[in-house]
């Protein structure tokens, strides 16, 4: 049995790609050690994050998240026990209002602005975005493999003409 916590908060200063990358770097390592999975959405003003794991480690993780001065006004939107994680493949996944994967999902659904959604809808939409991102990563890995495979082939010009 896992616990899933969903909160939203207000960004205090700069929450650009570099800040997120630094956060991601440390959070991925810690979340992996603790068995926490998580997915985050942000626009220029607010953050929405789903954090899931065993209840004791979740409490300490939420304490760390609350202590950060990158955001303030942290409000719990939901806390529920669940058999399965919603973001089992993500130690610290993230998307944002201008992310093409997010926009593609969101435009197709014709929903109100993200922070006006009820929490179930919001989590489901992030799951769709997460699935799209995973598929894109798999395709990238596949094309790298194909490219490497082709590199191992003898260049055509060097093949002996029969
Ligand atoms: C939006 C946000 C999400 C975070 N998510 C996680 C997380 O998933 N796991 C974790 O261990 N810490 C998380 N943290 C905490 C940071 O890894 C780090 O402990 C914190 O930012 C350090 O505080 P500082 O920014 O005030 O120096 C998060 C912090 C923020 C602001």
Compact description:
The protein is of the alpha+beta class.
Account of the 3D structure:
- The chain has a single domain, classed as 2-Layer Sandwich (Alpha-Beta Plaits), CATH 3.30.70.
- α3 crosses α4.
- The chain has a 5-stranded mixed sheet, sandwiched between helices.
- The chain is 46% helix and 25% strand.
- The chain has helices spanning 17-34, 55-67, 100-109, 119-151; strands at 2-11, 37-42, 46-53, 71-82, 93-96.
- The chain has 162 residues and is of the alpha+beta class.
- The protein is globular, with a radius of gyration of 20 Å.
- Bound molecules: flavin mononucleotide.
- Flavin mononucleotide is lined by residues 23, 26-27, 30-31, 36, 38, 40, 47, 49, 51, 61, 64-65, 67-71, 92.
The first-level CATH class name: Alpha Beta
Distance between the termini: 66 Å
Radius of gyration: 20 Å
In round numbers, the mean pLDDT is: 90
CATH architecture: 2-Layer Sandwich
Strand order of the largest sheet: 4-1-3-2-5
Low-confidence stretches: none
Helix coverage percent:
40-55%
Question: Helices and strands: which structural class?
Answer: alpha+beta
**Biggest sheet details:** 5 strands, mixed
């Amino acid at each position: 049995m896992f616990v899933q916590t969903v909160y939203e908060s207000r960004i205090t200063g700069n929450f650009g790609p570099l800040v997120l990358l630094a956060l991601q770097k440390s959070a991925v390592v810690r979340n992996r050690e603790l068995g926490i999975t998580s997915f985050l959405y942000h626009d220029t003003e607010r953050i929405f994050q789903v954090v899931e794991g065993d209840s004791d480690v979740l409490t300490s993780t939420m304490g760390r998240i609350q202590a950060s001065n990158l955001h303030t006004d942290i409000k719990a939107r939901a806390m529920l026990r669940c058999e399965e994680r919603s973001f089992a493949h993500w130690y610290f996944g993230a998307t944002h209002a201008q992310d093409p994967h997010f926009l593609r999902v969101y435009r197709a659904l014709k929903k109100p602005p993200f922070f006006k959604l009820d929490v179930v809808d919001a989590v489901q939409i992030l799951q769709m975005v997460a699935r799209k991102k995973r598929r894109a990563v798999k395709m990238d890995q596949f094309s790298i493999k194909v490219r490497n495979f082709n590199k191992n082939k003898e260049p055509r010009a060097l093949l002996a003409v029969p």
